[in-house]
Every structure is written in structure tokens, then in C-alpha cells.
Design a protein that fits this description.
about 65% helix, coiled coil, DNA binding, about 220 residues, two-stranded antiparallel sheet
């Protein structure tokens, strides 16, 4: 199909260009004239949609924009989450009076009829409020560990699923804490080229990690 027709019928009605207010696509990170391929173009061609107005043609693009932003943030947060998991687990090892299994049982069983504090053990010589606060802190830490571990595993699986070797190299370099200029040197490409690879990689990560949410609509 003629690319100019796709630009007029698809890009001008896409939230990625602010519904035609800008010629720079937020999803691809470049001028629409430089875009070589687009998921929405493929859908338009496959279904031979008639031109429509407004946002109805793109029910999944706004969630897609958010998914790309989330995937990019997950990449930036990876090393911080890894370090946080190690730190939280270290604290967990230091204090065994509230083992993880006990906290899990407390979460499943809920609080007693007298409230959560009544269900907690009382420390000898310490006011019960101190025991309650410590248990609540440990519970938050444990939940944070689970949340971070889930994100880390999801991100690592998405990176492993990348098909393009250069995209995967960029992603793995970022996970290892490398700077973009270092990754460019490793790949023997310019900084501009590695930025282009990175944008494509983040888009593919977003699909790998959040495809279901994009199709259903990402939660607020």
C-alpha cells in the first residue's frame, strides 16, 4: 500500500502523533517519514479498513505508549531493583523472629478479631507498638521483594526473547550497567545508531512484557 496513504489514513489519526498534531511518532521515536514499518500499518492493510475519524481506529495505541514508557523505566530501574532485593534480603536474614512463612500465613489468614496487632508475638521488655511496627515493616519489605523479583524476572525473560541480536546486546548491556557510549563501542556503531537500536529494542520489550495489557488496556 502507498506509504503516503498510510501516513494520511493511519498516522494522522494515531495518538502516537497526537492525532496529527506532530510529525514525530512517540512510539517509534522518529519522524513518521523515516518509519519503515508499523504494527498499525499492518493491521490497516490486512483489514483494508476504511478511513475513520478520531480515536476509534486505535483502541490499543494509548496503552501501547504507556507500555513503552513502562518498559523503558523497567530497564532503567533494573540494577536498582537488583540491589534493593539484595539489601532487603540481607535485612530479612538478620531478623528471624518474623520468618517469611509466618508473614505469608498472616497475609492469607488475615487479622484476628482484635486486629493485626493482637495476632503478633509480643517481644519481651518491649512495648507492643514496637513489635507491631517492626512486623509491619518486615511485611512491607517482604512484599517489596516479591514485587521487585517479579519485575526482574519478567524483564530478563523479555530480554532473552528478543530476536534481533543487536537489540539484545543493547538490552543486556543496559542490564549490566553499561553506558550507551560503551555499548556503541562494543557494537562498533555510532552513538546515533545505538540510540536507534535502543528505541526499537524498548518497543519490542514492551510487546514482550505487556502485550496482554496493551490489548486489554493498561491499568491506571
Amino acid at each position: 500500500m502507498n506509504k503516503q496513504l498510510l501516513l494520511e489514513e493511519v498516522c494522522e489519526k494515531c495518538p502516537g502523533t497526537g492525532w496529527g498534531r506532530t510529525t514525530r511518532c512517540q512510539i517509534h521515536g522518529e519522524h513518521i517519514g523515516k518509519v519503515q514499518g508499523c504494527h498499525q500499518w499492518e493491521e490497516y492493510e490486512a483489514s483494508q479498513m476504511k478511513s475513520q475519524t478520531g480515536q476509534a481506529l486505535f483502541p490499543d495505541l494509548e496503552p501501547a505508549l504507556e507500555a513503552v514508557q513502562r518498559a523503558d523505566q523497567d530497564l532503567r530501574d533494573y540494577r536498582w531493583m537488583i540491589e534493593s532485593i539484595a539489601s532487603l534480603k540481607s535485612r530479612e536474614e538478620e531478623d528471624k523472629q518474623y520468618p517469611r512463612e509466618w508473614l505469608e500465613d498472616m497475609i492469607k489468614g488475615g487479622t484476628s478479631q482484635y486486629g493485626i496487632e493482637a495476632s503478633l508475638p509480643k517481644a519481651q521488655g518491649v512495648h507492643s507498638d514496637v513489635t507491631f511496627r517492626e512486623a509491619r515493616k518486615l511485611l512491607r519489605n517482604w512484599e517489596r521483594i516479591k514485587r521487585y523479583e517479579c519485575k526482574v524476572k519478567k524483564l530478563e525473560a523479555a530480554v532473552a526473547a528478543l530476536q534481533d541480536e543487536r537489540e539484545r546486546a543493547v538490552a543486556e548491556g543496559m542490564l549490566d550497567g553499561m553506558k550507551m557510549y560503551e555499548i556503541a563501542q562494543q557494537l562498533r556503531v555510532s552513538r546515533q545508531t545505538v540510540d536507534t537500536i535502543r528505541r526499537a529494542m524498548v518497543r519490542n520489550l514492551a510487546w514482550n512484557m505487556y502485550e496482554d495489557e496493551m490489548r486489554e488496556g493498561l491499568p491506571a
